[in-house]
Amino acid sequence: MQLTSHDRLPDPQHGERAPDLQQAEAALQSLQIGSSDVALSALAAGSKAYPDVPTPDVLRILVEAIECGLNDSLETTTAAIRCIGNACIDNDSARATIAGLGFSWAVLCLHHENDEIKWLMVKVLYNICSDHEAAQIQCYRDRVHVPLISLCGSPQSLQSRDTSTLIDLLFWITGHKATIQNNDTDLLSDESVLELLMLPYYYHNIATVEDFAILLEICLTFLRDPSVQRQVVKSRYVACVWQMFVDCEDRMDHCQAGEYAQETKELLKPLSTSLIWCLSDIAANEDFTQQYSPSSAFIERLLSLIASGGEETGTKSKDAIEQAGLGARQRTEAHTIPEENTSTETERRSARSIAAACQIVGNMLRVLPPQDITPLVMTRKIHAKLWHILAEPDYADDDDDVPHSFAGFLVQLTRPSVEVREFLAEDVEAEESLRVLCEHKTPQIRQDGIRLLRALGKECPVNQERFRGLAARVAGRSGGGTSMQVEAAPA
């Protein structure tokens, strides 16, 4: 939403009275000699009709007036902000001048306790940054996004008609994170990271699908950064990322049938997939098992999800954020998702949710001793539902994330012993699942199937005999390169 000449920011003291150019120029001269509330108010009114009146020197004086006026006069500050906003509408020269001056003044306004100042600054920043990359980059360097994140999560923002403006502005600014050299000063504080990760949760039920998608992309901009991933692990915020993924899947599951449903899926599914891989990378962090033990509530929830296979109803669970102990921040009714929308039944309908859980737990299993993995197979039979889902062609053929994640997880389960591998392969749907994987249309999935077939046959004559026929067919299609006598341990 770009401001036009009809959207200029008038001075409330002057209402809609048509300004006089001579008065505006007189105010300009007065401002250059020494700023005053009267001169700024007149210039604010004049800048609505004559946006070219403020020169680069005047823009600098206006910025100084804002920095000083915040402590002395909100009227002066408001008038100066309006002057800058009107001067930058469709004026790249003014935008470049402001970007060159930096945005520390904007950060001060966004941190101010006065809501009018904050929202006026959002509108002005939107106009400055719209289609102006240099201004967006400078805003990121000056960390304008930090107070914007806090403002976006405030109760007032959740109920505001200007929410889309704020979300777009945040998206423009944070979109430059990957192109700007990362350093310690670039990192968000733990509090800001939590505020950021909570945004999709807050807006899950009240934002348009487009705004919700933008919020997810903003979060992913940070979550793709290894340093942020380490921060998420050490601060124990992984459950927030998981909830983000669940909410994304929920929006796809509950959209109405028809063309809009297809558009929603096309918009959100790539973001959901990105979240799966971010969760996988986070779980692969060397500090993950120090913060999340196999018996922790979060990991237990994921293990139960994998074991249920999408059929267990059970008791409705609280959202992952509360389970992780991150609910200390006071939330209004608008922040809270109704319980019926966060039930375990909702998330367990999605094989993709099980795939995401497999990515997290599977990476954790890589560093666990074999004795910790054995009970998952021998006692909990956590593999059974995975075999069942893989044997259903609709699941395996429709979404590559599902068979790839399942196969990798099953490979990790083969690690402990020959006894465990035999038990895994005894399932009545194991061979059909392996066939589906090894004959999949996607080369990567076929490789996943071969890898799992080899892992099950490692030092295990029973499984080598059990899958001899399948191994021969796979070897024939691959030029004879697949043998059940592979001795290399699974990765």
TrEMBL record:
Gene3D superfamilies: Leucine-rich Repeat Variant. Residues 1-20, 326-349 are annotated as: Disordered. It comes from the Eukaryota. One of its GO terms (molecular function) is guanyl-nucleotide exchange factor activity. Residues 1-19 have a biased composition (Basic and acidic residues). InterPro entries: ARM-like, ARM-type_fold, RAP1GDS1. This is Uncharacterized protein. It comes from Friedmanniomyces endolithicus. The lineage of its organism: Eukaryota, Fungi, Dikarya, Ascomycota, Pezizomycotina.
